[in-house]
Amino acid sequence: MTTTYTEHYQRADGRALRMTFAEPEGSVRGGLVVLHEAEGVTDGVRLLVSSLAGEGWLAVAPHIYELRGRLTGEDVLAATDITLAWLVDRGVQADLLGVVGFDLGGTAALVVASSRKLGAAVSVGGQGISTPVSEELPALVDIAGRLTSPWLGIYGDDGGEVGEAEVERLREVAAAAPVPTNVVRYPGANHRFDADPDAAEEAWQRTLDWFDAYLR
Q1: Distance CA 109, CA 95 (A)
Q2: pLDDT score of 136
Q3: What is the distance between the alpha carbons of residues 215 and 43, in angstroms, rounded to a whole number?
């Protein structure tokens, strides 16, 4: 398992943020911003960061809540911009940058993918498709048609967090965006993909394949 580290990063313009990251043992294939779930940078997020590094990616999770204590669209974009600068400072080329998020981080990843031009983006789960999860985040169907980064959405049908019709509507809206998009549904999986190991393994492989296809 690749070790994770946490450091405080400050840009020349004064903006600063804490980052939890892991580096691959060999050459770096690219850089991935990992957007955390509702509970912040948890052990699960650290495991994801470590696992991505094990696949050759310089993976880093910004501690977004440290900006203002909540997850707003403005804070997600600000934290992502700071983190992208951190990755560039580490030598990652701009066309090899991507973003990924699980659960609420999946919602945030689509917000980023519709506002920033990155090489690739992946959302695994995430509510707020038709109705915003808060007053400070948009409904995803309102922004998916403006995607500016190739985006993959992976959703589980079980658990009731996200409705099947909602996901299909998101698929339809995203398909009109001027970038490649794909939406995959798993009938036996919930939004965290911890109820169906086979679906979880396949979703993980789809995530890696998406980054392989567009970050090269």
Answers
A1: 17
A2: 84
A3: 27
Buried-state track 53-89, b at ≥16 Cβ within 10 A, e below 16: bebbbbbbbbbbbebeeebbbebbebbbbbbbbbbee
Query: What DSSP state is assigned to residue 139?
Result: -
Q: What is the DSSP letter of 115?
A: T
DSSP string, 5-61: EEEEEE-TTS-EEEEEEE--SS---EEEEEE-BTTBS-HHHHHHHHHHHHTTEEEEE
Task: Give the three-state DSSP class for 63.
Answer: coil
Q: How does the average pLDDT of the chain come out, rounded? A: 93
Eight-class DSSP state of 120? E
Q: Where are the beta strands (DSSP E) in the chain?
A: 5-10, 16-22, 30-35, 57-62, 97-102, 120-124, 151-156, 181-186
> Residue 176 class from Cβ within 10 Å (0-12 exposed, 13-18 middle, 19+ buried)?
exposed
Statement: residue 194 has pLDDT above 70: no
- How far apart CA 187 and CA 208 sit, in angstroms, is 21
d(CA 151, CA 25): 27
Domains and CATH numbers, the chain: 5-214 (3.40.50.1820)
